[in-house]
Amino acid sequence: MTKSEARKEFREKRVALSNASIEKLNDLVLLQFQKIELPFLNCVHSYIASEKLREADTSLILRYLQFINPDLKIAAPKIDVTSLRMTHYHITSYDQLKTNIYGIEEPHAGTVILPADIDLVLIPLLAFDRMGNRVGYGKGYYDRFLADCRRDVIKIGLSFFDPVDQIEDADEYDVKMNFCVTPHTVYDWTKQK
């Protein structure tokens, strides 16, 4: 399956989900996420889930991570549509967010956090394959950002759906995930060479 085919198919699958189904799937994703053995984390980067795009809700996972580490810093991205890059802001409240041109909430103020200071990234995706390749929305924001992160940053995708066998047009600029969490399992690529 190509990225374009995956984007179309998985957008349609998301639209077909009822609100009640999404709520249940988010709870199941959280339960699976809790099975990952994580090191101590100082800073986590997370996308702000879009109800309009029917993305997996990151707020449940962030609350869980802050429960086990009350001093955890949370960073959220603000995009620059000209450079196709993101700036990451420490957020302490959802009041710091405003809706951008894509209808996605992002911080409008705060302390900037550098990619080198981030220990774990929750990555948005539409689809993924069995090798850890993800299909995003097509602008490359996260691939650029992840290339700037430390080599040991933990990259975790969240998906309501199982992987496709292979994303045929994945290339060297696509940064693979370490894990992808679905409602029924955690896909783990950390042990691959």
Would you mind describing this structure in some detail?
The chain has one domain (3-188): 3-Layer(aba) Sandwich (Rossmann fold). It is built from 4 helices and 12 strands. The chain has helices at 3-15, 19-33, 58-68, 141-148; strands spanning 43-46, 73-80, 85-91, 97-99, 105-107, 112-113, 120-123, 127-128, 134-135, 154-158, 179-181, 186-188. The strands form 3 sheets. The protein has an 8-stranded mixed β-sheet with strand order 6-3-2-1-7-10-11-12. It is globular, with a radius of gyration of 16 Å. The protein starts with a helix and ends in a 5-residue tail after the last strand. The mean pLDDT is 93.
What's this model, at a glance?
The chain is α/β, with parallel strands linked by helices and 193 residues long. Helices cover 24% and strands 24% of the residues.
